[in-house]
């Protein structure tokens, strides 16, 4: 993955987030604080505005700087968690010194694990991790078998959608929705939806 691809992905993600304004706001009004879309829009737009600054950097340095920007830009719980994800990825990529699919799968999994540790959450708790953990597991497994990137991308799109849809029938045990108990059942988690959108957008750029 080159820095130029990261830059293209940031623009595509920003455009996707903007196009899903109504759905993200609706999901967050149902079980969240009502500010998820605004925060995601703010973060995505801030990163796009960094293009000139990011362009000369190596991929790991670019991802780390993106993480730092999100930390200072996105409010609520999402900012530190998403920032940790990018910074966790950057650390693995820098230490590996290569650009193989296996390295990026390992980096993605490491970023997800940082979110899991920092958020003190896990699979099945109606959060973004219900998308991120299955995608990380699938990415790692497919990369280990040298599956081509187009097949990996298609599989990850499907896995992300399945994880996102699965949150609809879960009782939230973390975050704002946890206070709703069974009333949260029937609603998709907005963070899971955002992650599904971002993963799908990046994978479509690859395939």
How do the helices and strands line up, and which of them pair or pack?
Layout: H1 3-19, H2 21-31, H3 36-48, H4 51-54, H5 59-73, H6 78-96, H7 101-119, H8 129-144, H9 149-166, H10 190-206
How would you characterize this protein structure?
By secondary structure, the protein is mostly helical. The protein has one domain (3-206): DhaL domain (Serine Threonine Protein Phosphatase 5, Tetratricopeptide repeat, Alpha Horseshoe), CATH 1.25.40.340. 72% of the residues lie in helices and 0% in strands. α3 crosses α5 (59-73) and α8 runs antiparallel to α9 (149-166). It is globular. The mean pLDDT is 90.
Search tags:
207 residues, mainly alpha, Serine Threonine Protein Phosphatase 5, Tetratricopeptide repeat, 72% helix, 0% strand, globular
CATH class: Mainly Alpha
Give the averaged pLDDT, no decimals. Answer: 90
Largest sheet: none
Percentage of residues assigned to helices = over 70%
């Amino acid at each position: 993955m080159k820095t130029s691809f990261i830059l293209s992905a940031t623009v595509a993600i920003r455009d996707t987030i903007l196009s899903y304004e109504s759905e993200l706001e609706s999901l967050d009004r149902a079980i969240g604080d009502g500010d998820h879309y605004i925060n995601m829009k703010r973060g995505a737009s801030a990163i796009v505005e960094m293009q000139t600054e990011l362009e000369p950097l190596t991929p790991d340095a670019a991802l780390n700087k993106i993480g730092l920007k999100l930390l200072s830009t996105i409010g609520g719980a999402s900012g530190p968690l998403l920032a940790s994800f990018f910074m966790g990825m950057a650390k693995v990529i820098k230490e590996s010194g290569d650009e193989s699919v296996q390295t990026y799968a390992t980096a993605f999994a490491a970023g997800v694990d940082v979110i899991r540790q920092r958020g003190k959450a896990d699979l099945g708790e109606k959060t973004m991790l219900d998308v991120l953990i299955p995608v990380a597991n699938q990415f790692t497994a497919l990369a280990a078998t040298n599956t081509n990137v187009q097949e990996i991308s298609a599989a990850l799109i499907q896995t992300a959608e399945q994880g996102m849809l699965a949150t609809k029938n879960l009782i939230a045990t973390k975050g704002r929705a946890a206070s709703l108990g069974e009333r949260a059942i029937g609603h998709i988690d907005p963070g899971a939806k955002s992650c599904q959108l971002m993963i799908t957008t990046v994978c479509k750029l690859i395939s």
